Amino acid sequence: MLIDTHCHLDAREFAEDRPTVIARAERAGVDAIVIPAIARANFDVVRQLAQEFSGGYYVLGIHPIAVPEAQDEDLQFLEQQIEASLPDARFVGIGEIGLDFFLPALKEPAMREKQERYFDAQLRLAQRFELPVIVHVRRSQDDVLKHLRRREGVAGIAHAFNGSFQQAQQFIDRGFVLGFGGAMTFERSLQIRRLASQLPLESLVLETDAPDIPPAWLGQAGGERQRNEPCHVARIGQELAQLRGLAYQDVVAATGRNARRVLPRLAGAPCGADTVD
Asked: pLDDT digit string (tens) for 106-134?
């Protein structure tokens, strides 16, 4: 089963041709697309979008880059929305949550403290509702792990992983899988490619982060790299297969199983390419 475990399909970059983008992904063999929320303002949007095509699924959470504008009542609203979404088969977890210590404004002491407070509050919700999380770990792997150690039983996906082998193993030991996408397709991304080729296959999932993190084959247009799309998760899977010396369908089957293991509510999705001849 070919799954894009991380695609911001609600982004404004898709406003003009979203149905075409979805159709293109389906033609590429994509069986499921997980759409993360980033703030209270798009909870309803991602929920509705996930209902509009057969492979749509969503998670709800407050992204670290949305924390500066977030209010504490947004956490209460998130809790209410999670509880209300539990009967919805398209709802598969909590995300995108985490920490970001890359953007300068987010590294300021007050904002760092607020990020950590919001992250811990959302991990508590994951514990309470026994739901997996999709975690943003940009320049923050050790700090994310610190919080996870305090919240036993919380597992999920470490999105766009770009840490060390030691950090990777710590996430894996806590029941996480690691998301690999467009960054892995650049030959100069030596560390990410080593991780993708040497970590246990049962610990990897595929993602695009579309419209962001475009893969290497998307050229420049007007000085900017072209928009990423969920259809590219197929070629990302081919790149991973080549790095590991495996058949593409074996990688699709394994990463699909991994995604459904850590996002158990995805288990009801059609098996599609998960069956290998």
From this structure: 999 999 999 999 999 999 999 999 999 99
Cα torsion 239, 229, 217, 139 to 10°: value is -70
What is the CATH number that goes with domain 3-264?
Answer: 3.20.20.140
CA 271 to chain centre: 20
**Domain definitions of the chain by residue range:** 3-264
- DSSP label of 102: S
Please tell me the pTM assigned to this model.
Answer: 0.95
Asked whether the beta carbons of 53 and 27 are under 8 A apart, the reply is: no
Predicted confidence at residue 274, as pLDDT, reads 45
Peptide bond into 96 cis (omega under 30): yes
How many angstroms separate the CA atoms of 9 and 21, rounded? Answer: 9
pLDDT at 267: 80
CA-derived radius of gyration, the chain: 17
